[in-house]
Design goal:
Strands 2-1-3-4-5-6 form a 6-stranded parallel β-sheet, sandwiched between helices. Strands 9-8-7-10-11-12 form a 6-stranded parallel β-sheet, with helices on both faces. The two termini are 16 Å apart. The protein has 2 domains: 155 residues, Rossmann fold; 161 residues, Rossmann fold, CATH 3.40.50.2000. The model has no long low-confidence stretch (mean pLDDT 94). With 326 residues, it is an alpha/beta fold. It has 13 helices and 12 strands.
Length: 326
């Protein structure tokens, strides 16, 4: 039996497909703040058993699992595997691929080779398996029906790097024009939490707030966002995206991933003045745009149809090997 632990909404989303697919699931230990969301996904909170292995989806939850007494911890990387290795100050930040302070001989279930290479270089004794994203495999698709629905979203104000900051302040003045031109819904990175600044700005711009990303995927035809794995998750469902480049994003710093190897996954917007026209270009979704989107998505999520089964197979191989090693 294998437990799962999640302290935040998006970590639940990443772990839920894996937990549901486990042949003998243990407990899903959900922090009290996300138990209702977990219940919506058919998951009942359990107390957990530190004698079992556990799967987590973040650096913070890894640390919490250690404090809870878990010794055997598998790491399912949430997101697209982004890191910030183009800057020496953030090259080994523990919250991103290949970061310091992780288990040297643990199991890492990662979305792509970009992420895997960083984990392997940092932890040569670790078992690193490219599985894609079980969350992406579970996201709903939508067929275009009538006038396009545009979703706009922003990263939380994270101070790790200029590229992790939110572009919301820059694009805020353009939201009303976007809402006037298109039926627009608004979303945000879950770590905005109880800060209602963004939601209130959406409301004033006539934009409906939608908290759940799966609901965004059910309703939207185009997704505009600054920096989030949801850019690539939405693109993986076959629909166009707009990348909102913030004024502090450094074009001369190459982190890889979103900055800048994968930025051609969608239309890039460098100024709020160009937001409506960038969305219009995405709505048109030219043949060239579709082909480039698919090329990038194939890099970010090389396993889309079988990501959950790959994760389960890796876990089932890891548990006996871990027990023998013990």
């Amino acid at each position: 039996m294998i437990d799962c632990y999640a302290s935040e909404r998006h970590f639940v989303d990443h772990l839920a497909p894996v937990w549901h697919a486990l042949p003998e699931p243990g407990d899903f230990v959900a922090h009290r703040t996300v138990r209702e969301h977990a219940a919506d996904l058919g998951i009942e909170h359990g107390p957990g058993d530190p004698e079992r292995p556990v799967v987590v989806a973040s650096w913070g939850d890894y640390k919490r699992a250690v404090k809870m007494g878990y010794a055997s911890i598998a790491y399912l990387e949430h997101g697209a595997g982004q890191s910030y290795g183009g800057d020496r100050r953030t090259v080994d930040h523990p919250g991103y691929s290949g970061g310091r302070g992780h288990i040297g001989d643990g199991l890492y279930l990662v979305p792509n080779e970009y992420s895997a290479a960083r984990w392997r270089a940092a932890y040569p004794r670790a078992t690193v398996v490219v599985v894609g994203s079980p969350k992406v495999a579970a996201l709903p698709r939508k067929e275009r029906d009538g006038e396009p629905v545009v979703a706009v979203s922003f990263h939380w104000p994270c101070g790790v790097s200029p590229e992790t900051r939110s572009a919301f302040s820059a694009y805020r003045p353009a939201l009303a024009a976007l809402g006037a031109r298109y039926h627009t819904i608004g979303h945000a990175h879950p770590r905005w939490g109880r800060d209602t600044t963004l939601r209130q700005a959406y409301e004033r711009a006539g934009i409906e707030w939608v908290e759940d990303f799966a609901e965004v995927c059910r309703r939207a035809d185009v997704y505009a966002c600054d920096n989030s794995s949801t850019i690539f998750e939405f693109a993986a469902t076959g629909r166009p995206v707009v990348l909102l480049n913030g004024p502090v994003y450094r074009k001369d710093i190459d982190h890889g991933g979103r900055f800048w190897d994968w930025a051609t996954v969608g239309v890039q917007c460098d100024s709020p003045d160009d937001l409506v026209s960038a969305v219009a270009e995405a709505v048109a979704d030219s043949d060239e745009q579709r082909a480039e989107r698919e090329r990038i998505v194939d890099i970010v999520y090389p396993h889309r149809g079988d990501s959950t089964s790959r994760a389960i197979a890796a876990l089932m191989s890891w548990v006996p090997a871990m027990e023998v090693a013990a």
